[in-house]
Amino acid sequence: MSTAQKFIEQFTDIHPLPHVVTTVTRLINDSESTMKDFEEAIKMDPILVSRLLRLVNSPYYRLVQTVDSISRAVAFLGMKNLHNLLVTDALKNIFIRPEIDSVFSKKKLWEHCAAVSILSKMIAERIFGVNGDDAFLCGILHDFGLLVEEQVRREDFHKICSSCTSTSALLDMEQRTFATDHCKIGHHLTLDWNMPLKIQNAIRDHHLLSADIDPSSLTGIIQLAEYITGQMKLATLPDLEMELSPPLIIHLRDNLDEYTVLMEDLPDELDKAQSIYS
pTM here? Predict the structure, then answer.
């Protein structure tokens, strides 16, 4: 068993992922799954049903008519969007647990992941013209390994947070202290949760500085979103320098006007998302 897997094993003993999320993830990966299968999985959890209907009827979607059944909610959202909502809702409840005073804050981490997820979806759809659902999910999950480290080795983790100044320094200190890092831990978590391969790889590589990263790839999109949110003071840790792979620096410079518009629009998109995720 790798060190990353040992961290995950200890973490899941503390915070198991809700059964319905693992069931829906399995259905997403089964090409023969139907809307009825999703409805059957969801209706067994009445609290989740109430949340789902509240989410679908929130101001974010601006529906003219109220959606009052699981089947209509599933049909409206689609399987991938439904999956993203369930995963986000489940993880939010882990992020918001009580915390001690520290330079690291689970609330800040949640806000960072939410910002990266929304901006990643915007980049995918508005810059590259592709569906942004996978980018959104990857953004929510990309730094989840940090929360695992904080829960399993809290004291050592907080020492790292109090002294690292860049993403490269963070990875180096994680490796020296834990013999793994949050990227590897997050990658193994997505393996356990049967997430799509490109999401697994993007989480593993979201801090990889390489001349071979394509800006339109999921890894490239997540790196761009994390860098931009860092520039907007939405990083997890104060004054943490976000580093960017060379091709992404060139891409950002060549498309600066488009990204400036995204940065201007991001606060409004975050405000709209508040109606769903609080």
Answer: 0.79
